[in-house]
Amino acid sequence: MNKFILIILFFCTNILYANTVAIDDTTEQLEILTSSQIYIDKTKKLTIDDIAHKDIEFQDNDKELLSYGYSPDFDVWVKFTLKNTSDKPIQKILEYGNSLTTDVVFYDLKKNISYQDGLLNTSSTRSSVNPIFEITLNPNEANTYYIKASSYVTTMIIKLKLWDYNIFYGNELKHQVILALFFGAMVVLAIYNLFVYFFTKDISYLFYVLYIFGISVHHTLYVGAANIYLVNQVTMGYIVEFASLFIAFPIFFLALFSKTFLQVNNYLKLNLILNILLILFPITVSVFLITDEFNKYRNIFSILVLLYLIIITIYLVFKKNRQAYFVIFGWLILAVGGLSMYLSSTGILNIYNNFPYIVESSLLLEAILFSIALSDKINTLKTKLIIQKKTENERLELQVKEKTKDLKLSLEEKTLLLQELNHRVKNNMQMIVSLIRLQTDDIDDKKIQALFLTTQNRLNAMSELHELLYQKEDLSYINAYEYFTTLIEGLQETYTQDVLINYTIDTDLQTEQAISCGIILNELVTNCLKYAFYNEKGDDRYIDVCLTKLQDKYTLIVKDNGVGYDQKKIKRSFGLILVHTLVESKLQGSISIDTKHGVETIMIWSEENEED
Fold this sequence. Notes:
Blueprint: H1 2-16, E1 20-23, E2 29-31, E3 37-41, H2 48-53, E4 59-60, E5 66-70, E6 75-84, E7 90-96, E8 103-108, E9 113-117, E10 132-137, E11 142-150, E12 155-158, E13 160-164, H3 165-200, H4 203-223, H5 226-229, H6 233-241, H7 243-261, H8 268-290, H9 300-318, H10 322-346, H11 358-441, H12 446-471, E14 477-478, H13 480-495, E15 500-505, E16 509-510, H14 511-532, E17 542-550, E18 553-560, H15 574-586, E19 590-594, E20 599-606
Parallel strand pairs: 1-6, 15-17
Antiparallel strand pairs: 2-13, 3-4, 3-6, 5-12, 6-11, 7-10, 7-13, 8-9, 8-11, 14-16, 17-18, 18-20, 19-20
Helix pairs in contact: 3-4, 3-11, 4-7, 7-8, 7-9, 8-9, 9-10, 10-11, 11-12, 12-13, 12-14, 13-14, 14-15
């Protein structure tokens, strides 16, 4: 009889402690879920008193991770027993390995305490990315604990791990440093591509920067860094309410990036479908945000857009689109990270045990690959432009040669006649200048002498042009550098100013436009020499003369570092009126004058805008 009682007692003891986890001060880390019991409360009404004192039938569990998908309609209760087998008190950390679970409550009935944590109840003192609970056991003490988990925002994933106190915080510090390096690298990539966008104005870079920003923000939420470092609980409540927006944001800009980067607009049907999806994207996201009954389908449209982007990329790979090769490799890398997240969340295969940062690695590699792809695109376009420019230059050169050959004979006679005409005009002007100079010598009035001197300089400006035309065989264009330097050297001799003249002249001028430019330059440089350096001495006085041509636009700039003047107080002289008239009426261009720091006059006109 006694033997039978002992057997019954032994059997009951085994049942009582069948799931008890033995630990001591040497236990560094231990998976708890495999030794726990699970109960699913589909009523969502059971309290800890109901669970502890009513006849609730828990089910044994042998999995390290439990995933229930999107589960807003039930709570999951976890029950486990720990026993300190050592002769001294021990303190452990219980980590709930999912930062996105909406509510997690830890119960210690023996000590009559409970702790609430989770996505919407993060403690202000918590420094770990996942919810944690402290467990203290006296020597040889056994205690049963309960965890209640509920999640109505994200998928329900439960993972429990018991840690040695010091080892946990050492591991947590290492984990957060690695995450900080990851986010730092993503920020660097975003800033780099943002600067490239500012320099190139390629909209693909801007879309890519917004994609990196969106994916980084989403990942701070996914790994639990946001709710301990970036936002408070009130803000987190709004984030949870608009969770689908944080998922859709990076995907939307990824679609825009793919559209521009892959030049999908060259493929009419693909582009039409993608445009329709992009238009519907914000509409569907808005519908899911305001309609609770469709909440569980909130990510379906985002997945649909991603699938279509993959289809486009595969199609363009077969079309031998160079950029598509980079993107397809990016998709493969991203798929590795996404598949790892899916397998781990469903409990099929926990890849994180061997590769804990596979998601971060895949996101970073994909971001780097896309950055390389963007750089390659720029280099490819640059090479094409160089080849195109070279081909165009060769074509134009050949065309010019052919036309020149046809016109050469007919122009020779006209060139000789024009040269003779220019020579005679130049001689006549020089004669007029000489007469004015002789007349000037007999005049005592300084103002009249200045007027005569100005007239001489204007005539010299036209005379020098005719002298150059007489010496040239091609009379349609004039050497602007030779003309300008000759003209200004004459003015320097007239006004005996020790001023440095800087020339930046990289184009020739049409003969008709050269006449106007010569008079304009004569007036502006004369003003500089007469007024810009009044009562100023030194070797740093200069006048810049710049003539450039971009496509069919000429730009003439005359600038000095003199004293400048107030345009409101000083009336326009006849010379400035002449300059404005020649630029606006003769050249049909525009003129602007800045007199704040010296005087800078900028004139812009088109090659074909010369008035007949």
